[in-house]
Write a structure and sequence with these properties.
about 200 residues; alpha/beta; UDP N-Acetylglucosamine Acyltransferase, domain 1; nine-stranded parallel sheet; eight-stranded mixed sheet; 20 strands; about 30% strand; Hexapep; Trimer_LpxA-like_sf; Phenylacetic acid degradation protein; Transf_Hexapept/Carb_Anhydrase
């Protein structure tokens, strides 16, 4: 669902995919190869929201801000299921964990990893390459080259997902029994431990 608001119409690059069950409203700009999952709400009614190329905003995320603000998610930012970003700016190639909350005027640096269910207070500035966890969120260590390589590999899957959705996602009636020739699921991604060879 794409909505205009007070004359602002979202601008979405044709290579990006916005699920029909997501809502994108008003002053929103979405770059190339972005994925917006079902249940996501990106509300540019009170301010501008810019998603640079390769950003993904997964299922049931909320992106909003106080009036008069402008926020930007830099290239390849990765926002996990159920996260809330309220008036915060996200750095290049960062990972925001599932069900985390990033509050107003916070700045998440490039290549940071914010753990699942973390709470980042308003106006917090997280330096690049920080691993952040907890409520309130605290930096616990620097993100290693291995961790960021694993994160980048995961984000590339989401950057491929828009093309895959355009090619194969269809509304269908369910099957009533399991077919004998049911396709096998591909195994194309490793957990961090597997990625590290652990």
């Amino acid at each position: 669902m794409i909505y205009s608001f007070k004359g602002h119409i979202p601008v979405i690059h044709p290579s990006s995919f916005v699920h029909p069950l997501a809502a994108v409203t008003g002053n929103v700009i979405i770059g190339k190869d972005c994925y917006i999952g079902p249940g996501a709400a990106i509300r540019g009614d009170w301010g501008e929201i810019i998603l640079e190329d390769g950003v993904n905003v997964q299922e049931n995320c909320t992106v909003h801000m106080f009036p008069g603000k402008s926020i930007r998610f830099r290239e390849s930012a990765h926002i996990g299921h159920g996260a809330v970003i309220h008036g915060a700016n996200l750095g290049r190639n960062c990972l925001i964990g599932m069900n985390s909350v990033i509050m107003d005027d916070a700045v998440i640096g490039d290549e940071c990893i914010v753990g699942a269910m973390a709470f980042v207070k308003a106006e917090t500035v997280i330096p690049s390459r920080s691993l952040v966890v907890g409520n309130p969120a605290k930096i616990i260590k620097e993100v290693s080259d291995e961790m960021i390589a694993w994160k980048t590999a995961g984000t590339k899957l989401y950057q491929q997902l828009p093309a895959d959705c355009y090619e194969s996602l269809r509304e269908v009636e369910p099957l009533r029994e399991i077919p004998k020739d049911r396709p096998q699921q591909e195994d194309f991604y490793k957990t961090l431990q597997e990625f590290k060879g652990g």
